[in-house]
Amino acid sequence: MFSLQNRIALVTGAGRGIGRAIAIGLAKAGAKVGVTARTAAEVEGAVADIQKAGGQALAIVADLTQKDAPAQILQEMTAKLGPIDILVNNAGIGSSANPRPVAEFSDDFWELSLLLNLTVPYKLSKAVLPHMREQRWGRIINIASINSKMPSLHGAAYAASKHGLLGLTRTLALEVAREGVTVNAICPGPVRTVMNDKRIEYDALRRSMTFKEVEQAMTPIGGRLEPEDIAPMAVYLASTEARMVTGQAFNICGGVLLY
User: Do 106 and 158 share a domain, yes or no?
Assistant: First the structure.
């Protein structure tokens, strides 16, 4: 296993799903992990899971739609765990929350999607860079989507924001490439999460199919990924062994996207 001993990590949106699995993976590799989400019970549950696995974690309840949330998280992390060495920008919102064609799309939902999926990762990345550059070591991992490379029917805001996240990833990677800081993205396919369940329900109704029929046909391998399928890549990208990997966008998608 890759060692993350003595590293401090922050994972946003870590109360459940992919974020929770990544937080547990980083902690098992030795990192001290700050776990953020809006719901106290979910954050505390994630911390309890990490502690059961022998890791160290800090629960931070924060609503990233609030302008001062990134600064609040950073302040609490630094005071209680130390400066952030590894940032995982996982928090976001999917198309399932309000799927519509572009002609009927909600402007408010568009703004919210771009805020959570693109602007918040930008702000948090900007905030952690001074420490990473000073120590000449840092890892920023953005959780994008296969929809950062392909369209999402009735999900324009999600696809646009995730395409933008790849642009941010690659540009920042180039800017800090000689400073010991790597910036990469993970692009999951359909993962068994609450958010993805809602999308399947929408597609099943739209296509006159059952939930199970839609789910089973989602990947060439068959079915959906589990959150735990994403965590090992995040642990690798956070490690010293991945020092020569930057500006990349790794598909973990069951064969949906073959490039």
Answer: yes
Residues 102 and 207 in one domain: no
Hey, CA dihedral for 69, 89, 51, 192, is it positive or negative?
Answer: positive
Q: Give the pLDDT confidence of 204-249 residue by residue, as tens digits.
A: 999 999 999 999 999 999 999 999 999 999 999 999 999 999 999 9
Residues 54, 92, single domain; the answer is yes
Q: Where are the alpha helices (DSSP H) in 16-148?
A: 17-28, 40-52, 69-80, 107-114, 120-135
All residues at 6 or more sequence positions from 42 whose CB lies less than 8 Å from its CB, including other chains: 15, 16, 20
* Other C-beta atoms lying within 10 Å of the C-beta of residue 64: 25
Give the pLDDT confidence score for residue 53 in this predicted structure.
86
Dmax (CA) of the chain: 56
Segments of the chain scoring below 50 in pLDDT: none
pLDDT of residue 1: 66
Tokens 């920023």 map to which residue? 140
Radius of gyration of the chain from Cα atoms? Answer: 18
Q: Name the nearest CA neighbour of 22 among 8, 10, 7, 37.
A: 10
In the annotation, is 158 catalytic?
yes
173 and 88 within one domain: yes
Is 34 contained in some domain? yes
Of the candidates 122, 158, 236, 259, the residue annotated as catalytic is: 158
Same domain assignment for residues 213 and 238? no
Instruction: Classify residue 2: in a domain, yes or no.
Output: no
CA dihedral 35, 56, 77, 117 (to 10 degrees): -20
**What are the pLDDT digits (tens) for 135-153?**
999 999 999 999 999 999 9
Q: Which domain holds residue 217?
A: 192-224
Mean pLDDT of all residues belonging to the chain: 96
DSSP 141: E
